[in-house]
Amino acid sequence: MTHLPFSGLISFARAPILDLAADFRADVGVLGLPFDIALGFRPGARFAPRAIREASLRYALPPEGFYDLRTGQRKLAGLQLVDAGDVILPSLEPELARNRITEAAQQLKSRVKLPIFLGGDHSVSYPLLRAFSDVKDLHIVQLDAHLDFTDVRNDTRFSNSSPFRRACEDLPNLKHITTIGLRGLRFDEEAVQAAKSRGHALVGMWDCADLEKVIQQLPEGKNVYLSFDVDVLDPAVLPATSSPEVDGMSYATAMTLIRETVKRNTLVGLDVVELTPALDASGNSNLLIARLIMETLTEVFS
Amino acid sequence: MTHLPFSGLISFARAPILDLAADFRADVGVLGLPFDIALGFRPGARFAPRAIREASLRYALPPEGFYDLRTGQRKLAGLQLVDAGDVILPSLEPELARNRITEAAQQLKSRVKLPIFLGGDHSVSYPLLRAFSDVKDLHIVQLDAHLDFTDVRNDTRFSNSSPFRRACEDLPNLKHITTIGLRGLRFDEEAVQAAKSRGHALVGMWDCADLEKVIQQLPEGKNVYLSFDVDVLDPAVLPATSSPEVDGMSYATAMTLIRETVKRNTLVGLDVVELTPALDASGNSNLLIARLIMETLTEVFS
Amino acid sequence: MTHLPFSGLISFARAPILDLAADFRADVGVLGLPFDIALGFRPGARFAPRAIREASLRYALPPEGFYDLRTGQRKLAGLQLVDAGDVILPSLEPELARNRITEAAQQLKSRVKLPIFLGGDHSVSYPLLRAFSDVKDLHIVQLDAHLDFTDVRNDTRFSNSSPFRRACEDLPNLKHITTIGLRGLRFDEEAVQAAKSRGHALVGMWDCADLEKVIQQLPEGKNVYLSFDVDVLDPAVLPATSSPEVDGMSYATAMTLIRETVKRNTLVGLDVVELTPALDASGNSNLLIARLIMETLTEVFS
Amino acid sequence: MTHLPFSGLISFARAPILDLAADFRADVGVLGLPFDIALGFRPGARFAPRAIREASLRYALPPEGFYDLRTGQRKLAGLQLVDAGDVILPSLEPELARNRITEAAQQLKSRVKLPIFLGGDHSVSYPLLRAFSDVKDLHIVQLDAHLDFTDVRNDTRFSNSSPFRRACEDLPNLKHITTIGLRGLRFDEEAVQAAKSRGHALVGMWDCADLEKVIQQLPEGKNVYLSFDVDVLDPAVLPATSSPEVDGMSYATAMTLIRETVKRNTLVGLDVVELTPALDASGNSNLLIARLIMETLTEVFS
Amino acid sequence: MTHLPFSGLISFARAPILDLAADFRADVGVLGLPFDIALGFRPGARFAPRAIREASLRYALPPEGFYDLRTGQRKLAGLQLVDAGDVILPSLEPELARNRITEAAQQLKSRVKLPIFLGGDHSVSYPLLRAFSDVKDLHIVQLDAHLDFTDVRNDTRFSNSSPFRRACEDLPNLKHITTIGLRGLRFDEEAVQAAKSRGHALVGMWDCADLEKVIQQLPEGKNVYLSFDVDVLDPAVLPATSSPEVDGMSYATAMTLIRETVKRNTLVGLDVVELTPALDASGNSNLLIARLIMETLTEVFS
Amino acid sequence: MTHLPFSGLISFARAPILDLAADFRADVGVLGLPFDIALGFRPGARFAPRAIREASLRYALPPEGFYDLRTGQRKLAGLQLVDAGDVILPSLEPELARNRITEAAQQLKSRVKLPIFLGGDHSVSYPLLRAFSDVKDLHIVQLDAHLDFTDVRNDTRFSNSSPFRRACEDLPNLKHITTIGLRGLRFDEEAVQAAKSRGHALVGMWDCADLEKVIQQLPEGKNVYLSFDVDVLDPAVLPATSSPEVDGMSYATAMTLIRETVKRNTLVGLDVVELTPALDASGNSNLLIARLIMETLTEVFS
């Protein structure tokens, strides 16, 4: 294995490529969802799974793991990581697309301890969450600039503004959502009231000045699905997203929240959505997301 | 009116903006279809109506028309041109989107002599053509690198590979299609056979070396709907398209075919599709398409 | 009205378009000044009015106003916002251009409570300010990395380094200027002395560490014209400007200063200058400026 | 001298840099005019002199000249080439700018056999031509998509649409202009009539199909100033120009016309204008123009 | 297998990925050489193997082959195509890098009928050709704008200007080279004489006007290694190359020369070099090269 | 001298250009090393010397120096600054390249008080440091995200990961290295141990929260060579680098560390490496580095 990131065939962090139909078991499995047709603004997230994989070659995992300068320890030694490829998704048949996402997520979930889903726009989280309908007392931690709890937008109930609304309707086991990083000039009042009436925690970016207090609002001892919308990050840190909101989260704060979430809970799934590679010609946004995923793994598996 | 193309508010060629609901009459009406979610490759055609309008400011039409150096004549003097804005299109409800396109096209068609539709990907041509179901003996001239007559692709019947297949199924008045500019490494054999069995004319780019012979294959004395897929042009001439095919048509050849088509027939509608502005950072592709539309008007109205 | 930001015709925040010659009244009017020929560095600000308008479609104002998550209140409900288009500006006749700017600004000022001017480079502020020669005891708050108080640069007195010098010479009612955000490796000493001798407040970026103290230097109870040069912001936050200076202001600090300014004073006019859209291919800079203007309105009209 | 084009300090083709004030003599002198504020469309030609110089390093002239594969001969051996830098040009004082251009051109003209001027937009040709008011029976060959003979545009007489009109008014010795490559959707009728009434030759791009015939229209035995507007080239060949016109000239045709012009006449000056480097991120447009200038020298000095 | 080109894991045309160490046999094998440090101009060809693979997904080969519209035939049905990944290449140990290339090429050559090598800059052709030292009477057909037969350039004998010079020195079986597409302002006279003295055919781009005559100069009945430097193509057709030369070859002409070469000879190897993906942000250059390779296969295997 | 940064010939801050062979003396000399072939990731640093020079024109030094607003003082008045051009560097002869770098650095060092080296990738620091083998008790302060103390990487001992390892082996006078800004997901454990065993100070980015403490770790009263790898900066601040690491240093912190370093020690040399201009299309990264160098000069010479 080379660690020349411009060389060699591409899989997530140079993990072996295995078909979902195959009978494998692993610690972590990565699945791509090249789907970006939910109503929004600037398309291109369909290229994100590929871009994240390519960037992840900078973080190819050697068998002995990563040596961490700060702690002097090795991390992720022996981790079994698998790349399960992309789900093939028709566009003009969105219900079929949603069903395929759910089915593939169920398969991956049955094979690995931690399934990681690479979006795609945020609409994919709804069919992904359907694969977690059997998880007891499911909690979601959503890092996001937007609430994504809208009922109907522009005549559709399935846009990237609605995944968690739909999930709450369909999944009785979905107990609670903590959304952190909210900001922006305008919100959908009906969505805000609906989320509040369900008892969800809505944490504005302005609340993150007191990070300790935010951490205390995180669930504890729960089964947690983490949904990471890259637009939670500040656009200066991550320009490559469809709907940027200024004055966002630093990478360090995001990693702290992820760390505290996985420390206090059992992480049952992770999605990373709304990365739009073409909006950052330098490719730096892709590199950052690849690292964020690998760093999340160091928190989960240590 | 200024002719500074970087200044002033934007409408197609600085035409007045009128709502489709209003009771107006005009020679030409332009309607945008910012829709790019049909299965394909590189998205972004949703920004094409806006990009074409902005580029068209270089061709703002003065009341006295354009002075043509070659002929010494004025063209398009007094033409009544109207910009009817964009159709609002939901994405994850594709059937609803198709219905809205058809309805808006019907409205525009009832108000102007020549409706011009700015795509959007090529899937919009099917709902557009449904608005022409009342035209007697409808012929289509399609300038395109691809046949777009596929039955089913990736589990959908409505992708940008299928608009003319669907139109043929639904519109008994659609008599014939002439497709010019075909090329590429591979074709859908079933689609080719289906088109041939209906008697359609399939003209390869290689046939265009003898342009006279191609012109003779054009319909004569018919009601013609012209569908212009920008990928018929050579990618060196127009890089900004999702699925480019090398060794394409020059602008001059395309204009000759348009000229001969409108000279011999009655043009009942025109669509221009598959322009993807973000793929040509210079903006030159947009400028070319804006000119092509205005030059088509000089052929129709003279 | 759609809130699909890639769809529909373009006016500032989807406001109605009205000609300055028309007899209208409104709360806010927006006027574009596509002018970027004052001596400087990287041209392209002539495209800023258009780019800001396009970006502002993300902030189309619904009649019921924006719902603010933090306060739970609606903002800008019923605001009458008008887009008055662009001034047509010759380039090689700069005196004529300046006169047209002044005249158009006077017209807009007579029709709306708050006129907003979209530059263009900073040289436009001088002819804009001439339209405010009738305002009693005019104060200027200038957010800017540069002083722009140079007498003569490269043989001209009208470059984007001199607007406030010229304004001070011509407008007896211009009492005071507070410039905040100054930084950079070198300054024009003569300009600094001239500004100081007039009693202007020159606030360096280094002073902004103690924001409370800066706020106390703001005027109170005055008629204030706010001139926002986008290069006051940190280039990481806003890369799209001709002459970036590192270690600049955050968006949050800029909004705090704007908020405190409008709270303590009467805002009589606002210009936003030096945005150069082509320098940020992502378009994020444009989106940020559109939001900054809308958020300023929420501060003024609440 | 290296021929690594990414290495070393920059001057035109690695020529020695000499100040116009110095008392030198040379075969060829290059002078830059970083000026792009004449009314037009997309600014940025101010960066063209620098971009052409940088690209020209690929064509650094060794003392023994270039070896030509086709003829087996050495070309430009011993040519004395000098780079005289750029004229410092104020913007908001356009008359002063024009005077400085004229003066610098006179100086260069007095020192070299062939002065080459790197624009800048086409407005610079008027003050450049004033430096040739002493040339007997001056003829101009203008390769250009546009006529640039407009009297007044957008309230100015000095835009990049008018340089030759102004020159004709001011220079009694300017006998004739041959403009080749004209095309586009619209022309200024008054300008066309004015040019024709003076007997100018207006050669459309459509006439260039019969190149021999065009060549016969070239002047013979005259003092010729060649003005090369890069937009005469096809935008596929040279995308980096403010106002592209489709279906333009190939490089080969342009070089043929240049070759025939210099063969039949005495070339007294050359300008190359309207290159806008930022519109071609590949840099290929700059490389092409650098080569065109060097290849022109091989025609003149052989 | 999907034919959504933005979806799924990446291998050349979705071929199976096999390690060179494995004991496989196939018709065609593809090997990447991400190496771009030979002296030149603009680096970035190290990303070409990856970019070509990604683009090739548009040409994923179905088992039944491609249906060709022009002939009505299926092509490449049942072709066994394998992707053997990239060679791991150190940079500051160039001799070691060359040895690894030779060794990997030998391995691939022993396993497949036609090995295809994806450069990298043109310097890789020398170590590649060393793997063909056992081929009887080896002929090379080189499509290239440059001769690449220089002895020493900038103190090195192994730059991308010298691969064929080195090969001729080392390989007694290398009988003849036909170089087609030569052009440019200057040539290395010593290199030209050396090539001519060996009897090589040097065919200028100007000779390609009479393509029949060029075809007659191709070898016949020989073992031919085809070296395709993408800069043989016109920069308008393929902008993404380090050292573009204007007035180059069309894709159609290049394919004709390839077709005639493989028809008359036995193709023993193919390399495609000097593609620099970052110089064409549209990605169209990559798509063109992927197609050229697949189309070459249709000529070889039919 | 103009201060129009888009005008005029290019040298560092408009300093006079002098050949290293000439017998000159100056305060500061700048030398470019356009070399980027050491193993790494994204090439292009070969264009950095040119890009930094072009950007530095914004900081052309007038004889009277820069006027500093904060202190009211003039800085760098009368500084003798010289641009010594670039070293001509072969690529495929890396040992020769290293020798030329060492030799040129020795020459520059003998002529100026402070030599400044513009990389190039970080591998150049090793041959540069060899020119300082005569400096008593040499200390290095390295601002860098990476340790660059690896023994062998990808079969080479001379990559951009190893310059300081090689320098320590070769230079007995090299006493100590302080590396500040370290961060990233993985480190080379062997390199970390080797550096620690030599007593080097390894300061993580996380330590920089307490900047005072970091400053106390700086050497005092030593001869210091400062090696500035631009990737020490946060990628939001400086995107244009090959191997960005998120959560990096602000410009202000970097300047503080530079200031404190030069205040407490004698600065004997400075290199600035790993700038990759093509990765930041806005050019802002280049401008920032040009300013950082000039600002460093104000600290050294005051």
Task: Describe it.
By secondary structure, the first copy, chain A, is of the alpha/beta class. Helix content of chain A is 29%, strand content 19%. Chain A has eight helices and ten strands. Chain A has helices spanning 48-56, 94-111, 125-130, 163-170, 189-197, 211-216, 251-264, 284-300, and strands at residues 26-32, 66-67, 74-75, 81-86, 112-118, 138-143, 174-182, 201-204, 223-229, 266-273. In chain A, the strands form two sheets. In chain A, strands 4-1-5-10-9-6-7-8 form an eight-stranded parallel β-sheet, with helices on both faces. A two-stranded antiparallel ribbon of chain A has the order 2-3. The longest helix of chain A is centred in the middle third of the chain and has 18 residues, at 94-111. The two termini of chain A are 24 Å apart. Chains in contact: A-B, A-C, A-E, A-F, B-C, B-D, B-E, C-D, C-F, D-E, D-F, E-F. Chains D and E meet through strand 2 and helix 8 of D and loops of E.
Largest two-chain interface = A-C, 28 and 29 residues
Number of strands of chain A: 10
If you consult CATH, what is the topology of chain A? Answer: Arginase, Chain A
Helix content of chain A: 25-40%
Order of neighbouring strands in the sheet with most strands of chain A = 4-1-5-10-9-6-7-8
Low-pLDDT stretches of chain A? none
Keywords (chains A, B, C, D, E, F): Hydrolase, Metal-binding
InterPro entries (chains A, B, C, D, E, F): Ureohydrolase, Ureohydrolase_dom_sf, Ureohydrolase_Mn_BS
Family (chains A, B, C, D, E, F): Belongs to the arginase family. Agmatinase subfamily.
Organism (chains A, B, C, D, E, F): Deinococcus roseus
